[in-house]
Every structure is written in structure tokens, then in C-alpha cells.
Amino acid sequence: MGSVIVEASRADLSAVADLVNAAYRGDAARRGWTHESDLLAGQRTDAATLRDELDAPDPSAILVLREAPGGPPVACVMTQRFRDDGDRLLCHLAMLTVDPARQGRGLGAALIGEVERRAREAGCAAVEMTVIHSRAELIAFYGRRGYAPTGRTKPFPYGDERFGRPLRDDLHFVVIEKPLSA
């Protein structure tokens, strides 16, 4: 495949935002199976929001997958380490994105594997993520990779259009988690 996974630079943020928006929203996103076009309208993210994530006191990291060194991002994921209420060190995985025209080639699995590898090396007990509750096929995709529902939910950020305009009034997230062995 010849692909490389690297941390995104600030110069990548516009391309990353374009990739994420193309994969999650609008008619173009319907080419892939991971879109949210029936649930949310508007943008999924923008370069300024991604920059804020990188500049936060507890910064996120954005990993990009390129098909060749120096090429454009064709897949990405955002991660952040944090401590839960039980003081476990966890890695939050978010915004896993693969260009809809390249889905089904193992690029998402490669990014998940890299996140898990980095989290394990950092001493994280598990990788956690949130998925919109009605995305059964996406929850099943993660389930095949060892992620299971924790029983916890989180509210959808209604009123914060930085993440899109909800097309339904019943959205919330389920929290799923994969334990990591040492």
C-alpha cells in the first residue's frame, strides 16, 4: 500500500477539515457508508476548531494517513488522552475518517491500530469513543474490532452548530470502549 501515518501539522488542518466534511456530510458523503447525512446537516468540523483542539490545555493529536509521503490526507483520526472518574488513563478516539472513495480498503483499521498502539505505549488502560446511538452498523464495525458498549451515554451538543445542525431531536451518544493489554 505504501501509505504512511503521521501527526497532522497546522498546514494540514484545512485539508483534514475538507476530508472530514466530505466523508460525513452532504450528498458526496453518501458514496461511503460512514456518513451522517440523514442525521446532521452543515459542517462536521473546520480548520479553526481543529486548531483549537491542538492548542487546548489537554491537546488532541490528529493523525493523518497519506497514500504516499507528502501526499494529501486520505484518512484521519483525532485522539486525546484523559483520566476517567476512576483515575484510569484512557485514550479517546474521535473523528475517524476515510475518504468515501477509499473506504473498504483497510485504511480505517490501520488508523485504529495505530491509535491503539500509541495508547498502549502511553500506558492507557483502554481506548474509548462515542458514537451516535442510531448508527448500528458503525457500532457493529467497532464491535468487530473489540469495542463494546459501556452502558454510559452522553448528550448530543444541540445548539452548537460547529458540529452540524441536527435533523432529529433524539440524538445522543453511546460510549464504547476497548480494553488494552499491557
TrEMBL record:
Gene3D superfamilies: 3.40.630.30. Keywords: Acyltransferase, Transferase. Pfam families: Acetyltransf_1. Residues 3-181 form the N-acetyltransferase domain. GO terms for molecular function: acyltransferase activity, transferring groups other than amino-acyl groups. This is GNAT family N-acetyltransferase. It comes from Lichenibacterium minor.
